[in-house]
Amino acid sequence: MASVDIVDVQKSFGSHPVIKGVNVHIEDGEFVILVGPSGCGKSTLLRMLAGLEHISGGEIRIGDRVVNDLPPKDRDIAMVFQNYALYPHMSVADNMAFSLKLKGAAKSEIDARVKPAAEILGLTNLLDRYPRQLSGGQRQRVAMGRAIVRDPQVFLFDEPLSNLDAKLRVSMRTEIKNLHQRLTTTTVYVTHDQIEAMTMADKIVVMQDGRIEQVGAPLDLYDNPVNLFVAGFIGSPA
Ligand code: ADP
Ligand code: MG
């Protein structure tokens, strides 16, 4: 695991600024949630951490490395997306092994990583199935499995539960938290769901319109929101 530092990070698309100078320090092993309304820049910020978008200004550090110019594969991160497209023609095991195969890992190494990941995620008996034979929750677990096998320093999640029904969403919250506790990997998790943020985060970062409104532990934000926006968003009276 590793700390993550976001230092005065900015991003413009053309002449349109969408991230307007953001600073966040994330500790080793911390579970940090970025929340804010749709369009405020959560995904863009996460994609910059992943190296999927260039940053227009500032610095991103993972551990003690500045990663601004590193491609995604060299950042020691793994990202789980909202639309976790699994390869339909590949089994669960092959979906999980895909990135390792791309890197040219030996079969013995692939087995040594896929098996324990499958065990952690309760997928051991499903390794030979194909995505169409899985439930939504099982598919989401395979998507997480693909990330875990890479043994990253940092996990990034972009609204991983938003396509699941309400009941499954609640149980997957617990699963993701358990996973985090077990792997102790630094995690940055994006959601627009206040309850998800309040129940899962060590630390919440509240964003609005490309800026950070407040950073704090869930109860800090609840008890001491700095303004009406945070109060309204977190759900407490100001
Ligand atoms: P969120 O994830 O919080 O909903 P996004 O990071 O997706 O927000 O988007 C933030 C802003 O950046 C939005 O106004 C969006 O339209 C804009 N945006 C995101 N990606 C692009 C892009 N590739 N080109 C132009 N504008 C973009
Ligand atoms: Mg988004």
Automatic annotation (TrEMBL):
A single GO BP term for this record reads: carbohydrate transport
**What residues does the ABC transporter domain cover?**
4-234
Q: Does the keyword Oxidoreductase apply?
A: no
Q: What keywords does the record list, in alphabetical order?
A: ATP-binding, Nucleotide-binding, Sugar transport, Transport
Subcellular localization(s) per the UniProt record: Cell inner membrane
Q: Where are the transmembrane segments?
A: none
GO cellular component terms, semicolon-separated: ATP-binding cassette (ABC) transporter complex, substrate-binding subunit-containing
How does this protein lie in the membrane? Peripheral membrane protein
Does the record bear Nucleotide-binding in its keywords? yes
One GO MF term on file is: ATP hydrolysis activity
**Chief location bin:** membrane
Q: Which family does it belong to?
A: Belongs to the ABC transporter superfamily.
- Protein name per the record: Multiple sugar transport system ATP-binding protein
What's the source species for this entry? Aureimonas pseudogalii
What taxonomic lineage is listed for the species of origin?
Answer: Bacteria, Pseudomonadati, Pseudomonadota, Alphaproteobacteria, Hyphomicrobiales
**Portion of the full sequence shown:** 1 to 238 of 352
